[in-house]
């Protein structure tokens, strides 16, 4: 087409001499007025010029226009080729809540978002991370791939913004289907189906960038799904943070426990590196109040989050469960840390031998060890997420307890300090300039608080947004049931606990049927009372016991004055 236009103007230019000598012809109704250039000089009148004049002006620029068109076409082709290899769309996702991370962290670090051991592969799961509402789902048939087929996308259908987490995974197309109007999206977020229009028209609509759901690069490491939230290309692999540690090759994650907590990311890690609170806050769960002794701690070493390896580390000595303990803390990224230590004691004493047998049975040398592995991320102002990872030696089995039972025990452990962590955070924020002047709000004269000071200083240096005094925290819950809400904070999105609840309901119905059958048998004398009475009692106790156990998945208060 460009060559045809060029040929036309070339022929028109050949006629310019003949038209140049002819008198100027104007069209009635068109006023011819002198025009001025940008420099003020009078130029040729504006009006209808001759075809030859037009050709004379246009023809010299045709080669340049043609060349520009060719270059743009090449660029479009290159962009199209690049787009076919891009695994995610970079259209920005609106912040549903203010971010808690430092701005630089999204371009430096992978964020752990959920555990593959707890996610239900049959459903899309809503997850809020660093103020973004996201949905996590697994592509059917890709379970054995490097990333396990897990995908993280914006939790909003581009059609009418309905949450995709309320939808379903369509097994026939292996796509995520919006439950509102049936639009479907593939693993890259591209729209593959619009049921409301004909295929020909739908094809054009699906080609629009506005039909796509922003998706994010994902990886799986330590049985966790990690997501890259940055605009730039992902750096490294989330498993790189384990290099040089015991988790790199010797141990593997065998179980996890996830819970959203009603206090911020800064308060979460501050609490987890506060080693001296355990005997009191977790009395009866990990040791007792009698374990409290003076805590010794090295001066923490701190590095920038731009560096690799240990960002913050320290060593401490304390006592727990009646045994002396020496352990090291290592923050490997803003979102993952571990404790690694050993219990000390008189190796010849019967008490220590029994303790070592309970705690060190899985160790190569039989010595009792202490390990704690935690992934911690900001969710929204006043909210954070903790993922506890249980690591065992490669080839060894984990706990003999079912996962749902371990999760109930973990719920109890976190409930024991949740109330005062929630209100402590709000009291700190109410202090004047608390985010910048936390050292004036806190009185921490002891050596055991060195880790807290180092953590707060590091957050300020990194410019973490979770401590911004301009960001308001949400109102506190109106009841303890809402504050310690195990259902919304854990059970609703844990496949182990939901399955356990479903099985308990089946057994409970069986107990009810057994009770009714025994009652009818006794009333109608179809069975002897000596048989019916025990069966009735068994059915009633079973129904009541299971109902009590079911409540553990929803709410259980923790009152320290009763312990």
Which features would summarize this protein structure in a list?
563 residues; alpha+beta; 15 helices; 33% helix; globular; disordered N terminus
How would you characterize this protein structure?
- The longest helix is centred in the C-terminal third of the chain and has 29 residues, at 495-523.
- It is globular and about 75 Å long.
- The chain has 15 helices and 19 strands.
- By secondary structure, the protein is of the alpha+beta class.
- A hairpin with a 2-residue loop joins strand 18 (369-380) and strand 19 (383-393).
- Strands 12, 13, 14, 15, 16, 17, 18 and 19 form an eight-stranded antiparallel sheet that branches.
- Main structural class: alpha+beta
Extended strand count = 19
**Which residues sit in consecutive blocks of at least 5 with pLDDT less than 50?**
1-66, 72-89
Shape: globular
Distance between the termini: 86 Å
- Major sheet size, sense and barrel closure: 8 strands, antiparallel
Strand content: 15-25%
Radius of gyration using CA atoms only: 34 Å
Summed over residues and divided by their number, the pLDDT gives a mean of 84
Give the helix proportion (percent range): 25-40%
Annotation field: number of helices:
15
SSE layout and pairings?
Elements: H1 2-14, H2 16-20, H3 51-58, H4 62-85, E1 111-115, E2 125-129, E3 132-138, E4 150-154, E5 168-170, E6 175-177, E7 184-185, E8 191-193, H5 199-207, E9 215-216, E10 218-221, E11 224-227, E12 251-261, H6 265-272, H7 278-281, E13 296-297, E14 301-302, E15 312-320, E16 323-333, E17 336-344, H8 350-359, E18 369-380, E19 383-393, H9 403-430, H10 438-441, H11 450-462, H12 480-483, H13 486-489, H14 495-523, H15 529-551
Antiparallel strand pairs: 1-11, 2-3, 3-4, 4-9, 5-6, 6-7, 7-8, 10-11, 12-19, 13-15, 14-15, 15-16, 16-17, 17-18, 18-19
Helix pairs in contact: 1-3, 6-11, 14-15
């Amino acid at each position: 087409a460009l060559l045809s236009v060029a040929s036309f103007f070339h022929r028109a230019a050949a006629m310019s001499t003949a038209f140049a000598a002819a008198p100027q012809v104007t069209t009635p109704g068109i006023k011819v007025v002198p025009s001025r250039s940008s420099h003020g000089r009078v130029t040729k009148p504006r009006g209808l010029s001759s075809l030859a004049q037009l050709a004379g002006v246009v023809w010299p620029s045709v080669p340049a226009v043609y060349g520009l068109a060719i270059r743009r076409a090449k660029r479009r082709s290159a962009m199209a080729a690049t787009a076919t290899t891009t695994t995610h769309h970079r259209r920005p996702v609106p912040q549903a809540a203010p971010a808690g991370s430092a701005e630089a962290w999204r371009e430096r670090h992978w964020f752990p978002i959920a555990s593959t051991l707890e996610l239900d592969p049959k459903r899309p799961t809503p997850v809020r991370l660093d103020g973004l509402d996201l949905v996590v789902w697994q592509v059917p048939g890709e379970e054995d791939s490097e990333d396990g087929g897990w995908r993280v996308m914006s939790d909003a259908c581009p059609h009418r913004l309905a949450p995709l987490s309320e939808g379903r995974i369509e097994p026939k197309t292996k796509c995520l289907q919006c439950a509102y109007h049936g639009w479907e999206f593939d693993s890259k977020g591209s729209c593959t189906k619009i049921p409301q229009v004909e295929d020909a028209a739908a094809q054009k609509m699906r080609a629009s960038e506005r039909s796509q759901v922003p998706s994010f690069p994902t990886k799986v490491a330590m049985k966790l799904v990690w997501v890259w939230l940055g605009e730039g290309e992902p750096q490294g692999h989330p498993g790189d943070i384990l290099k040089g540690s015991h988790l790199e090759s010797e141990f593997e994650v065998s179980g996890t426990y996830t819970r959203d907590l009603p206090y911020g990311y800064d308060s979460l890690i501050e609490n987890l590196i506060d080693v001296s609170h355990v005997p009191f806050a977790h009395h009866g769960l990990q040791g007792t109040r009698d374990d409290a002794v003076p805590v010794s701690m090295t001066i923490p070493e701190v590095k920038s989050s731009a560096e690799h390896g240990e960002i913050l580390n320290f060593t401490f000595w304390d006592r727990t469960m009646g045994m002396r303990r020496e352990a090291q803390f290592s923050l490997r990224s803003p979102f993952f840390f571990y404790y690694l230590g050993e219990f000390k004691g008189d190796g010849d004493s019967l008490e220590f031998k029994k303790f070592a047998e309970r705690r060190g049975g899985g160790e190569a040398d039989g010595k009792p060890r202490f390990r704690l592995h935690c992934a911690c991320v900001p969710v929204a102002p006043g909210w954070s997420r903790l993922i506890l990872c249980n690591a065992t030696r490669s080839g060894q089995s984990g706990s003999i307890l079912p996962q749902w039972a371990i999760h109930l025990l973990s719920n109890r452990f976190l409930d024991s300090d949740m109330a005062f962590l929630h209100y402590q955070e709000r009291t700190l924020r109410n202090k004047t300039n608390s985010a910048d002047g936390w050292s004036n709000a806190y009185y921490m004269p002891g050596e055991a608080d060195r880790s807290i000071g180092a953590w707060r200083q590091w957050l300020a240096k990194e410019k973490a947004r979770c401590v911004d005094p301009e960001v308001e925290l949400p109102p506190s819950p109106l009841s303890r049931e809402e504050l310690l809400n195990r259902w919304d904070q854990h059970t609703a999105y844990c496949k182990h606990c939901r399955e356990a609840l479903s099985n308990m309901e089946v057994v409970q119905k069986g107990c009810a049927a057994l009770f009714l059958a025994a009652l009818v048998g006794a009333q109608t004398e179809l069975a002897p009372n000596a048989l019916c009475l025990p069966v009735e009692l068994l059915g009633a106790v079973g129904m009541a016991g299971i109902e009590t156990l079911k409540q553990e998945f929803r709410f259980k208060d923790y009152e320290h004055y009763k312990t």
